[in-house]
Design brief:
By secondary structure, the protein is of the alpha+beta class. Helix content is 32%, strand content 27%. A 3-stranded antiparallel sheet has the order 2-1-3, with no helix packed on it.
Length: 59
């Protein structure tokens, strides 16, 4: 499986609750926080829903 590194680059202030919960489920709680995940269909869907708030890099 491929791995990706996710970094939160924008705040969750004034964002819908669903987007906030998606970021939290990905393990991102603060701006500039980074996590690594294996790319599964579930993770890929979560990334698509909040792609405007994060930066995605190949790990």
């Amino acid at each position: 499986m491929a791995k990706v590194k996710l970094t939160q680059v924008k705040s969750t202030i004034d964002r819908p609750e669903r987007q906030r919960l998606t970021l939290e489920a990905l393990g991102l709680r603060k701006i500039n926080a980074s996590v690594e995940h294996e790319v599964t269909p579930q993770i890929a869907g979560m990334i698509r829903k909040v792609q405007h708030l994060i930066k995605v890099e190949q790990a």
